[in-house]
Specification:
By secondary structure, the protein is of the alpha/beta class. It has a single domain, classed as 3-Layer(aba) Sandwich (Rossmann fold), CATH 3.40.50. Helices cover 30% and strands 19% of the residues.
Length: 268
């Protein structure tokens, strides 16, 4: 019987993930908050559901979305940065957790972030205790704990590094900026294709009840990396001053992938 995968949040990562899963023989339920995107999902063979989470309610038929789903991928960014209106991320996930408990879903993949490690110095592994220093990181840790502490669920947490890929690269925002600190600090990045590949690996191998760091295993300095990326794009490179304190290197989940780095798309 073909597994049905539910993808909550068909955005920059969720949509190509859903497309890839369909191409590999899975059936996929996907969500969006906009009517326009619902049409896109339908065109791509994804069973679409218009669902919006807030801190007080879930708008849309969440129970129909969860029906017969074998694996649920929760890919909802906290969106707690910037000056715009913010809602409690943990409140949203608590409501989603309640809905999951009313369904037959048992296998969860939760897309988290290496932001949960804050500014820890040195090498960071999955065994390193989170020390978030942002509101986003703090609420992500709370959501991780909520899901993985529910022993009735099989939850794998994937802590993604900085996301890069089509139409998304930090150098475009850094271009031309001056007096940036941390030039000697290592980058901790991962390509979209690798995010999809790791999620697929978890599904294919039923690899649950684990925490995985998802970061490319090479860590050039910010100054080296962003200067090179700016040159490749023909845009002004950012200018760095002396290094900052953060010398964090997040190690890749190599045990899970059996050191097969050929699976990874180069960040260069």
């Amino acid at each position: 019987m073909t597994k049905k995968i539910g993808v909550i949040g068909c955005g920059w990562l969720g949509l190509p993930l859903a497309e890839n899963l369909i191409a590999n023989g899975y059936t996929v339920n996907g969500t969006s908050t906009s009517n326009e995107k619902i049409t896109v999902l339908k065109e791509k063979g994804i069973t679409p559901f218009k669902i919006a989470l807030s801190k007080k309610e879930i708008k849309g038929d969440i129970h129909a979305f969860l029906d017969s789903v074998s694996v649920l991928v929760i890919n909802i960014p906290p969106k707690l940065r910037g000056n715009g209106p913010k809602e409690s991320y943990i409140a949203k996930i608590k409501l989603l957790h309640k809905a999951i408990k009313k369904s037959a879903v048992k296998n969860i993949i939760f897309a988290s972030s290496t932001a949960v490690y804050g500014d820890i110095e040195g090498t960071v592994t999955e065994k390193t205790a989170p020390q978030p220093n942002t509101e986003s990181g703090t609420q992500l840790v709370q959501c991780e704990d909520l899901l993985k502490n529910d022993k009735a669920l099989n939850t794998t947490i994937i802590r993604f590094g900085g996301l890069i890929g089509p139409n998304r690269h930090p150098v475009t925002m850094l271009s031309g900026r001056e007096n940036l600190s941390g030039g000697d600090a290592p980058v901790n990045l991962i390509h979209l294709d690798d995010c999809i590949g790791i999620i697929k690996r978890v599904i294919e191998h039923d690899h649950y009840n684990d925490v995985l760091n998802a970061v490319y295993p090479e860590h050039p300095t910010k100054k080296e990396y962003y200067t090179l990326q700016a040159e490749k794009r023909g845009i002004p490179a950012p200018k760095y001053t002396a290094t900052g304190k953060n010398q964090k290197i997040v190690t890749f989940c190599s045990i899970f992938l059996i050191n097969d780095y050929s699976l990874l798309t180069s960040i260069n």
